[in-house]
TrEMBL record:
<comment type="function">
    <text>Catalyzes the removal of dipeptides from the N-terminus of oligopeptides.</text>
</comment>
<keyword id="KW-0732">Signal</keyword>
<keyword id="KW-0378">Hydrolase</keyword>
<dbReference type="Pfam" id="PF10459">
    <property type="entry name" value="Peptidase_S46"/>
</dbReference>
<dbReference type="GO" id="GO:0043171">
    <property type="term" value="P:peptide catabolic process"/>
</dbReference>
<keyword id="KW-0645">Protease</keyword>
<dbReference type="GO" id="GO:0070009">
    <property type="term" value="F:serine-type aminopeptidase activity"/>
</dbReference>
<dbReference type="InterPro" id="IPR019500">
    <property type="entry name" value="Pep_S46"/>
</dbReference>
<protein>
    <recommendedName>
        <fullName>Dipeptidyl-peptidase</fullName>
        <ecNumber>3.4.14.-</ecNumber>
    </recommendedName>
</protein>
<keyword id="KW-0720">Serine protease</keyword>
<dbReference type="InterPro" id="IPR009003">
    <property type="entry name" value="Peptidase_S1_PA"/>
</dbReference>
<comment type="similarity">
    <text>Belongs to the peptidase S46 family.</text>
</comment>
<dbReference type="InterPro" id="IPR043504">
    <property type="entry name" value="Peptidase_S1_PA_chymotrypsin"/>
</dbReference>
<dbReference type="GO" id="GO:0008239">
    <property type="term" value="F:dipeptidyl-peptidase activity"/>
</dbReference>
<keyword id="KW-0031">Aminopeptidase</keyword>
<dbReference type="GO" id="GO:0006508">
    <property type="term" value="P:proteolysis"/>
</dbReference>
């Protein structure tokens, strides 16, 4: 308890040294930020107040992305690229919503967004003392880590047992120095309302991704439905639109450069308190490897997609996230080298080491911290190449191999005594996975699956002899070739039937071991390898977490500034003014783009195709009320100084009064290394302007009913 108190005191009392607008702050840290002085024109309690309804309750978690409630009937806004997976899955039977978009003119025409789950924040609570109670009595770091993980799972399940539509997550902050419980209401009935055509929602495609100036109408309207009794529920025709206690008002006044703004959302992951050896590894190993592998898979899937429109739609769900990740990794790698991040981290560590050495107490406690940290880190990456391909087997080896691994992995855990199972294992999670299995099959195509698996098997075959996976030798010895195995495997397996695959989740490990299905046999061969990696990494993970915790303690003592936790998918607050920036010498980027810029970029070829109707609106200057009086044009996107990362996609952008002025959808190329270190002076969020959203919705789509629902006249 004493350590928890001291840690909290450190967070509350540091008050200088932070760069302007830096920080992905927890909602309970707002009172540290001096927001009124910076331009906020509302009470902080209206943004977040424990036990009260506030703006935070109108921000929606969509898995790995964000959204916002904009009407009393559960209407939500998010990005086009966030809704992309639902649109792709719904584009079946010759229907191409990706290209043409989708508009429901009535509630009855709204269709399911397959696989999407919305979560509304109900409660946020510091549970550090409850999680760590008695843990200091466990000396073995692995046993202590497993005990903490098991307690967290028990506490989460206790919350979820209160109601069937509750979700709970206890998130670790500062490498386990603090634990916060986030309680959500879960809704599995999410439907598509208006998705603009791809030529608007993804204008500029991967060419413009992460770049400014940007001219993408990256938005979509969805709706959350609930059961008639007000609970989150799976899709049913009897469900009714969700009735939120708080939704967000649309701003009527135009934005100007210098205006105060803020964003609330669910940023995914940052590594800002990492050491130089992490940076060295990512710069010289991790990013180059992923860039090469992802580009190879993208090229392969693009070629397969040329065979038919159906295969193109099936493949695009994978290539979309691969392309996004690829460009992000390229930007990070280029940025690390440009700003000499590795050298900066080493210089910081030298200064911190001097600080430690200047104090006997610090020296006694932390004197060899960096040396121990580096030694442990090097252990963690000894067999990285092999571990990398085994880890990515679950994602990049095809749908059927991935499902087979899931089936076998569940049976493998169930076969263990309860106390020896992975702390994260949960029958409730297994049942949810079974229920959602159909969504994994929506992107399945034999041609794609075979190509992905063949590529992965060739990687395995070329491992050095000492790293070979012996259990897979049957593929290379019992068949004439990998192609021969693939033809036999996909012809003989029944796992291509989703209902049959579901049935296997009830099988025991012994029953699965007796099966002759080639994919179950392959999963059986891989399971010991996955288990070996887990055991090797477990001790390392426990030690690394403790070392990371100590490193953060030292940084706090040295830097004497407010500290926010690294992003980890939990709800955060960030703020900053509308502002352009200078990316390099003699270049100035304005903070707004306009419809004129959309037309100037048009080439008539993807990804710069402008729909004819949009051209007509531009030619006639039929802008309605959405013209900006200063720009004398329809604004499309804008920049602000907010500190965001992946996961913030779809986050609401508010003006000083807490009104919606935009939707965050990207960061800028020059500051992609912001995941590692805040890029002071050039870090920007790229946001689609709400005026462009409304212009497209009204003038292009004729969806006046959506505007009326949001209270816009």
């Amino acid at each position: 308890m004493k350590q928890v108190f001291i840690f909290t005191l450190l967070l509350l009392t540091f008050s200088f040294g932070l760069k302007a607008d830096e920080g992905m702050w927890l909602l309970n840290q707002l009172n540290q930020l001096g927001l009124e002085e910076k331009g906020l024109q509302m009470e902080e309690a209206e943004i977040y107040s424990p036990g009260e309804i506030s703006l935070a309750n109108a921000v929606v978690n969509l898995g790995r992305a964000s959204a916002e409630l904009v009407s009393s009937d559960g209407l939500i806004l998010t990005n086009h690229h966030v809704a992309f997976g639902a649109v792709q899955r719904a584009s079946t039977g010759g229907t191409d919503y990706l290209t043409n978009g989708f508009l429901a003119k009535t509630r009855d025409e709204e269709i399911p967004a397959p696989g999407y789950v919305a979560r509304i924040l109900l409660e946020m609570k510091d549970v550090t003392a409850d999680v760590l109670k008695g843990m200091d009595q466990i000396n073995d770091p692995v046993k202590r880590m497993r005990a903490i993980e098991r307690r967290i799972k028990e506490m989460e399940e206790a919350v979820e047992q209160e109601r069937e539509d509750y979700d709970a997550r206890i998130a670790s902050m500062f490498s386990g120095k603090q634990y916060i419980l986030f309680k959500y209401q879960r809704f599995e009935d999410v439907r598509m309302v208006f998705i603009p055509p791809r030529a608007i929602g993804n204008y500029g495609g991967d060419v413009d991704n992460w770049m400014w100036p940007r001219h993408t109408g990256d938005f979509s309207f969805l709706r959350i439905y609930m059961s008639p009794d007000g609970r989150g529920a799976k899709y049913s025709e009897d469900n009714v639109p969700f009735q939120p206690k708080r939704w967000i008002k649309i701003a009527q006044e135009p934005l100007k450069a210098g205006d105060f703004t803020f964003i609330i959302g669910f940023p995914g992951r940052t590594n800002r308190y990492s050491t130089s050896f992490y940076v060295d590894f990512y710069q010289n190993k991790y990013y180059p490897l992923l860039i090469n592998e992802f580009q190879d898979v993208i090229n392969m899937l693009d070629e397969i997609g040329k065979q038919s429109k159906e295969l193109q739609i099936k493949a695009v769900g994978t290539t979309k996230w691969l392309n996004n990740s690829l460009k992000n990794y390229q930007g990070n790698l280029e940025g690390m080298q440009r700003i000499k991040l590795l050298q900066q981290k080493k210089a910081l560590e030298e200064k911190v080491q001097e600080f430690i050495s200047s104090d006997e107490n610090l020296k006694r406690q932390y004197g060899d911290l960096l040396n121990r940290f580096e030694q442990e880190f090097q252990k963690s990456i000894r067999s990285y190449d092999r571990d990398f391909f085994l880890s990515y087997f679950r994602f990049l080896a095809g749908t059927i191999p991935s499902v087979a691994n899931s089936i076998y992995g569940v049976a493998y855990e169930r076969a263990k005594p309860a106390e020896e199972r992975e702390p994260s294992f949960s029958e409730k999670d297994v049942q949810r996975s079974i229920q959602r299995l159909q969504y994994r099959y929506m992107s399945f195509a034999p041609e794609i699956d075979k190509a992905l698996l063949k590529r992965m098997l060739l990687k395995f075959k070329n491992f050095p002899p000492e790293q070979r996976i012996q259990g897979l030798d049957f593929i290379f010895t019992d068949y004439k070739s990998i192609d021969d195995f693939l033809e036999h495997a996909y012809a003989s397996t029944r796992l291509t039937d989703v209902d049959y695959a579901r049935s296997l989740f009830s099988k025991s490990l012994e029953e699965l071991n007796q099966m002759d299905d080639p994919f179950i046999r392959m999963a059986r061969a891989l399971q010991p390898e996955f288990d070996k990696i887990r055991k090797e990494k477990e001790e390392n993970k426990a030690l690394m977490q403790e070392l990371s915790k100590q490193w953060i303690e030292v940084l706090m003592a040295y830097e004497k500034r407010p500290f926010y936790p690294d992003a980890n998918g939990t709800i955060r607050f960030t703020y900053g003014n509308v502002a352009g920036y200078t990316p390099r010498d003699a270049v100035w980027y304005k903070p707004f783009t306009t419809l004129t810029g959309v037309m100037e970029k048009e080439t008539g070829e993807w990804p710069f195709i402008v729909p004819e109707k949009l051209k007509e609106l531009y030619a006639k200057k039929d802008y309605g009320q959405w013209i900006d009086p200063e720009l004398k044009d329809v604004p499309v996107a804008f920049l602000n100084e907010c500190d965001i990362t992946g996961g913030n996609s779809g986050s609401p952008v508010f003006n000083a009064k807490g009104e919606l002025v935009g939707i965050a959808f990207d960061g800028n190329w020059e500051a992609l290394t912001g995941d590692w270190q805040f890029a002071d002076g050039i870090q920007r969020a790229i946001n689609v302007y709400i005026r462009y959203v409304l212009f497209i919705t009204e003038k292009f789509a004729g969806a006046n009913h959506i505007l009326q629902e949001m209270g816009i006249k």
